[in-house]
Amino acid sequence: MIAVVPLLLYAEHLLYNRDMTPAYFLYARKSTDVEDKQVLSIEAQLAELRALARRDGLEVAEEFVEKRSAKMPGRPVFEEMLKRVERGEAQGVVCWKIDRLSRNPVDSGRISWLLQQSVIQKIVTHDKAYFPHDNVLLMSVEFGMANQYIRDLSVNVTRGLRQKARMGIYPSTAPLGYLNDPRTRTIVVDRRKAPLVRKAFELYAKNESRLEDIAQFLFERGIKTGATRGWSKGGGRPLKKDQIAFLLSNPFYFGHFKYSGEMYEGTHTPIVSKRLFDRVQEVSRLRSNKRPSENNPQVYCGLLRCGECGFSITAEDKLKRQKNGNVHRYVYYRCTKKKAAVHCSQPYVREEALDSQLSGLLAKFVLPEHWAKELDAMAEKDAASASQTTAASVQAMRAKIADLDGKIARLTDLFVEQDIERGDYLERKRALMSTKKSAQERILLLERNAAVWLEPMRAWLKDASLLDEAAQSKDLPSKKSSLQKIFGSNLTLHAREARGVPQNQWFSLLAAKENHSENDLVPILVDQRGIGPRTSSLQMRHSTTELLALMRDKEDASILFSRMTGQHAHIGPL
Ligand SMILES: [Zn+2]
After folding, report:
1. What are 296-354's pLDDT values in tens digits?
2. Centre of ligand 1 from the C-alpha of residue 506, in Å
3. How many Å lie between the centroid of ligand 1 and the Cα of residue 515?
4. pLDDT at 510
5. How many angstroms is it from 502 CA to the middle of ligand 1?
6. Which CATH number covers residue 210?
7. Phi, psi of 527 (to 5 degrees)
8. Residue 193 confidence (pLDDT) above 90
9. Structure-derived torsion over alpha carbons of residues 81, 84, 89, 91, reported in degrees to the nearest 10
């Protein structure tokens, strides 16, 4: 009689639980076998299993962790889990792979049996789910294959490394200046080499050293290449250029690292500041930009497209030997003629001819000096008055925020004194907070926009004033970059002639120059719009930034032009 009561309770317990959404046990196991000696694999398994449960919306009742091989029956945690499953505390099990549950026929048999009896209603693994009505044979085959654990080794290792990266530990060989600490399995600063690496960054940041110089600097202080496989003479030399380039661009040194395409925040000690690192990246960009421009015969490649078929214009180097033995080098530009179906009839053009045409084009866009001066003064005046207006608006916004803070505080008092309902309180507070947030953002926006157009405006005035220099110079790369600023990618080559539609502000400038003499007043230029900012003295006119936005809205330059001047655009050879 005494035994019946707990039995009834047990039955009721089962019934009760069966009616509810099934609960699951997570089971993670790290064996003492050689195959997964990953220190992290338990934590990694648990992280994956939790994610799995979340993905499938499973309710997790408890997590079981076992540190023991499954080759032999008799794992205590596993035993306890099964006992509790039999008691109905959970109806399903989540594990990484079925082999986590069993690797011996006894345990496999038990799992199969519990599943067939629907005591376990579902086993969820990362790539599969097992149900009571599943083919028993199939499952036993799968259990059997669990012995071939080698097959799974690679995926298991990757998972372990990913977990390590998540924890901020770079799961690979430490870069120069750091050491792998085999004891803690973390990465620590190499006291001898780290200062040298930092010094290398500092040196390079000065923009006085080449990569080779940095390599030499490190070499003299004992940092050399290691012996490399397949390179018999390897080792003991200064690091190679690309190794230095890699070192100087490795975010590991300021505390981040990249692992399988993703950036992680490391827990290791940085040895350079982000500021120094950024400076080095800037220097490296500067230095790498300079090189191809020196004496590059194909400087105008990528600037023009073919006016007939639309493909890019490329260059060709040709040597001509004269009878007297002199050799002349010519550069020709021609269409790449990439589309076989389209017959392109465009002829070659000599670099000299093209260059003089391009110089002529540039000269049309030179901003006359006194126009530049007046525009600059106007912009300056506008900026000053704009910043005054901004300061006033910002002050008003700040007062408004202070007022809102006061209101929120009073509202809270009312609620604490129980003078208003909770729902009412929350709703009113939400409204006040939202207004406050908007005001704060408005301040940021005002402060950012106050002179947002001034810098690009000044830069443009400077560019436009210096064009005559560019047009006359022998510096083809800078000519190219000026042309790209003016035409974007709108330059074409047709019948040996370069032509194109300039971008908005240049278009206005050109129109102004064509219609007025240089002695005309600047307001005439301003009337063309597209140059000035849209504030007081240039009021109600389009600013350059606005025009850029219009252009982005697929407004064709010609439409823009006719809108501005009431004339139809002249799109032909300029
Ligand atoms: Zn062509």
Report:
1. 557 888 899 998 888 888 888 887 777 887 777 788 898 887 766 778 888 889 989 99
2. 27
3. 34
4. 83
5. 21
6. 3.90.1750.20
7. -60, -25
8. yes
9. 60
- Report how far ligand 1's centroid is from the alpha carbon of 339 (Å): 9
Same domain, 255 and 279: yes
> From ligand 1's centre to the CA of 311, what distance in Å?
6
Of the three residues 135, 163, 191, the one that is the final residue of a domain is: 163
Q: Please report which helix (H) or strand (E) contains residue 491, including its range.
A: strand 491-494
pLDDT tens, position by position, 389-413: 778 888 888 998 999 988 888 887 7
Q: How many CA atoms lie within 13 A of 380 on its CB side?
A: 7
- Separation of CA 356 and ligand 1 centre (Å): 21
Domain-terminating residue out of 144, 163, 182: 163
For residue 313, the surrounding DSSP H or E stretch is strand 313-321
CA of residue 493 to ligand 1 center, whole Å: 9
Distance 480 CA to ligand 1 centre (A): 21
| One-character DSSP codes across 321-390 | E-TTS-EEEEEEEEE----TTSPP-PPPEEHHHHHHHHHHHHHTTPPPHHHHHHHHHHHHHHHHHHHHHH
What spacing in Å lies between the alpha carbon of 349 and ligand 1's midpoint? 13
Expressed in angstroms and rounded, the spacing between residue 304 Cα and the centre of ligand 1 is: 11
Residue-level pLDDT at 213: 93
The yes-or-no verdict on residue 37 having pLDDT over 90 is no
CA of 354 to the centre of ligand 1 (A): 16
Mean confidence (pLDDT) of the chain: 76
316 CA from centroid of ligand 1 (Å): 15
The answer to whether residues 282 and 303 belong to one domain is no
Tally: H helices and E strands in the chain: 20, 15
For ligand 1, the distance from its centroid to the CA atom of residue 330, given in whole angstroms, is 21
Higher pLDDT: 144 or 505? It is 505
Confidence of residue 202 (pLDDT cuts 50, 70, 90): very high
Better pLDDT: 378 or 152: 378
Examine the pLDDT at 217 and tell me if it is beyond 50.
Answer: yes
548, 536 Cβ separation under 8 angstroms: no
What gap in Å lies between CA 123 and CA 104, rounded to an integer?
A: 18
| Cα 266 from Cα 258, distance rounded (Å) | 9
Distance (angstroms) between ligand 1 centre and the Cα of 169 equals 54
Distance 306 CA to ligand 1 centre (A): 5
Q: How far is the CA of 353 from the centre of ligand 1 (A)?
A: 18
* Tally of CB atoms within 10 A around 549: 12
Q: pLDDT per residue over 224-249, tens digit each?
A: 887 554 444 557 788 888 899 999 99
Domain hosting residue 347, numbered range: 299-574
Question: In this predicted model, which residue has the larger pLDDT, 382 or 565?
Answer: 382
What is the structure's pLDDT at 128?
78
- Whether residues 415 and 493 share a domain: the answer is yes
Tally the domains of the chain: 3
Tokens of 296: 């590059």
Query: How does residue 261 score in pLDDT terms, banded at 50, 70 and 90?
Result: low
